[in-house]
Automatic annotation (TrEMBL):
Protein name: Anti-sigma factor antagonist
Pfam families per the UniProt record, alphabetical: STAS
Stored InterPro entries: Anti-sigma_ant (IPR003658), STAS_dom (IPR002645), STAS_dom_sf (IPR036513)
Xref: PANTHER family: ANTI-SIGMA FACTOR ANTAGONIST TM_1081-RELATED, ANTI-SIGMA FACTOR ANTAGONIST TM_1081-RELATED-RELATED
Domain of life: Bacteria
Record family assignment: Belongs to the anti-sigma-factor antagonist family.
Signal peptide: none
Residues in STAS domain copies: 23-118
Species of origin: Phytohabitans aurantiacus
């Protein structure tokens, strides 16, 4: 009997919703990493190929994101901008907001506290950089 020693990988589930204001919500659920980032990238590329250029990525369902997943956001944002649109990130977990800040993406990409704020581009809903805590002397 053969035993597969690799743990079962959770796949990335990506749903797409077109909001009434012609903004498309892309909601990845699961883990965004080296094994699944191409799936999200293909989803966004497919939307761009059909002329969809206003995209909000709902991050609330991501349990994990590595550097390859993060690069997917920057590449997709640039592609949307070249097409005359935008890519906005929304509803990151506290961990993901901190990660986006540490790697400098919180300052480079628009990240909103809620999907609704991202849909409307409500600057009051932008995620501020996390409090770094007490400063050490």
């Amino acid at each position: 009997m053969r035993v597969d020693e690799r743990p079962e990988r959770r796949l990335l589930d990506v749903t797409i919703e077109v909001a009434g204001d012609r903004v498309t919500i892309v909601a990845p659920r699961g883990e965004l990493d080296v094994d699944t980032a191409a799936q999200l990238r293909a989803t966004i590329d497919g939307l761009l190929a059909r002329g969809t250029t206003r995209i909000v990525v709902d991050l609330s369902g991501l349990g994990f994101c590595d550097s390859v997943g993060l690069s997917t956001f920057t590449v997709a944002s640039a592609a949307c901008a070249r097409a005359g649109g935008y890519l906005r990130l929304a509803a990151p977990t506290a961990f993901l907001a901190r990660l986006l800040d540490v790697v400098g993406l919180l300052q480079r990409l628009p990240v909103y506290a809620t999907v609704d704020a991202a849909r409307h581009g409500d600057t009051a809903g932008l995620v501020p950089p996390p409090d770094p805590g007490p400063q050490r002397p």
